[in-house]
Structure formats: C-alpha cells, structure tokens
Write a structure and sequence with these properties.
2 domains, 9 strands, two-stranded antiparallel sheet, alpha+beta, seven-stranded mixed β-sheet, 9 helices
C-alpha cells in the first residue's frame, strides 16, 4: 500500500503525537507527486512565532508581564503590529523597565492591546484602510502613501502568517492617547 499526502504525514507523525500526549500533528498539504510539505511558520501561534523570530524579546517579555500570553496563543484571529527590540529601544530611557513592573500591568496591557486588531488583516487590506479600531478600544491611523504606516510607525515586514492570525513588524512602538 502506498501512502501519500496528508495520510503519510499523519502516519509519520503518529509516534510524535503519542509521545507528546496527543497533540495535533502539523497540517500538511500534498502535491500531485505525493510529496508532503508542511508550512511550519503558519503552524505556530503569534507568541511562538515572535519568540522564534528573535527580534521581539522585549515584546515577548512585555506580553508575559501584562498577562497576555494565553490571549495571544488563543484562537484569534488577531493582527499584531509588532514592534521590534530596536523599536522599544527608541523609547525614553527607563520606560520599558518601568512598564514591566507589576504595578504597571494594566498600563502595559493597554499599550500592547493598542498594537492588536481583532481579525486577520493582511497588508494589502490594511493599505486600503485609513484607520482601524484596536483591541484596546482606540483607533490608529493607517497611511499607505509611502509604504504602510500605522500611527506613524513604518511597517518594515508584513504578512507573517501564524496559526491564529498575522504579524506586521513595525519600527516604532505606538502609544495610545
């Protein structure tokens, strides 16, 4: 019996699934030659994708400090405008350290949810908008005249698909009013 496509992926990953306590195997797609391909990036959620990228250490630390890990690992979908470590470094000295303190958890959560849109908004769709309502409640402005910018922050890499949404990398931390 010849196994192809998704069935082969399931059979090959069954020992791994059993070893991991029944976790769902990665989705696979087969082509007409019976070869199996897995889109590893799209199998990871927003948090795991950010951790693996390596350029979001400050963002990940902030998400943990704000208690938002479980939310951003949830089903979503979410669109995250993710500031890099360099973007956080642009903030005044001591700002990040102050926000990471337990007593500032609510303020930090407000800033972070100001970077998140409910739903999956790809760059081509965002470029057609002039504003978007953030999970935090306020709106951001979107300007696509010279590359896509959100509240003045430039989108430096777009459409990083995850299992529960999409990440757009931005060069500046955007702050609510």
């Amino acid at each position: 019996m010849k196994l192809t496509g998704s069935l082969l992926a399931m059979v090959v990953s069954l020992p791994l699934v059993l070893a991991c306590g029944g976790a769902t195997p990665p989705a696979a797609s087969g082509d007409d030659k019976g070869e199996t391909k897995t889109d590893a990036a799209a199998q990871k959620d927003i948090v795991d994708t950010a951790v693996e990228a390596g350029q979001f250490k400050t963002l990940v630390a902030a998400v943990k400090a704000a208690g938002l890990v479980e939310t951003l690992k949830g089903p979503g979908p979410f669109t995250v405008f993710a500031p890099t470590d360099e973007a956080f470094a642009k903030l005044p000295a001591g700002t990040v350290e102050d926000l990471l303190k337990p007593e500032n958890k609510d303020k930090l959560a407000g800033i972070l949810t100001f970077h998140v849109v409910s739903g999956k908004v790809m760059a081509a769709d965002a470029a057609k908008l002039t504003s978007a309502k953030m999970v935090q409640g306020q709106e951001i402005t979107i300007d696509a005249a010279d590359g896509v910018k959100v509240n003045g922050a430039k989108v430096v890499k777009a459409d990083i698909e995850t299992s529960n949404g999409v990440i757009h990398v931005i060069d500046t931390v955007i702050l609510p009013k």
